[in-house]
Amino acid sequence: MRPISATSSHPSLSSHSRRLFVALALSLSLASLGCLSGCAALDGPAASDTGRPFDDSYVAQIKKGVTTKADIKKNIGEPWQTTVTAGNDSWTYHYSDAYANALKRSQSFGLYRKDPINKMLVITFTGDKVLDFSYTK
């Protein structure tokens, strides 16, 4: 029997086996790279988010019969949806990233652990003033 040195190729590894080994190593490297790049893209808005992000810090300051449409637009921004019911305008502010979070969690093998954001503000106006509003988070 002849001794095996570190520089000589192993006599039991055929050319086919070496190609298979290289292909497997390359596949694992690409899979790892794909996971790392996917994990790096886990923060920020996703195409699967619903609604539009909005700042809800002003909600506590809304006063029925006092707060105007201009006040709302200035402090919260443009509504996600507007409707008219019985002559009253209703503005809806809605944002949810729950589906995106579930998708990110599955893509990161459960390592992504951010609580989902689900919030909705519906404001009904009579004329220019707030008639009623509801906020859920």
Summarize the structure.
The chain has 2 domains: 30 residues; 91 residues, Beta-lactamase Inhibitory Protein, Chain:B, domain 1.
Describe the model.
- The chain has three helices and five strands; from the N terminus they run H-E-H-E-E-H-E-E.
- Strands 1, 2, 3, 4 and 5 form a five-stranded antiparallel sheet that branches.
- With 137 residues, the protein is of the alpha+beta class.
- The chain has helices at 15-40, 69-75, 98-107; strands at residues 50-51, 81-85, 88-96, 118-126, 129-136.
- The chain folds into two domains: 14-43; 46-136, Beta-lactamase Inhibitory Protein, Chain:B, domain 1 (2-Layer Sandwich).
- A hairpin with a 2-residue loop joins strand 4 (118-126) and strand 5.
- How far is it from the N-terminal to the C-terminal residue, by CA? 75 Å
Count of individual helical segments: 3
Query: Which stretches are poorly predicted, pLDDT < 50 over at least 5 residues?
Result: 35-42
Number of strands: 5
CATH architecture of the largest domain: 2-Layer Sandwich
Helix content bin = 25-40%
- Mean pLDDT across the residues is 76
- The percentage of residues in β strands lies in 15-25%
Which fold name is given in CATH as the topology of the largest domain? Beta-lactamase Inhibitory Protein, Chain:B, domain 1
Shape: rod-shaped
- Overall number of structural domains: 2
Q: What's the Cα radius of gyration?
A: 28 Å
CATH class of the largest domain: Alpha Beta
What class would the helix/strand composition place it in? alpha+beta
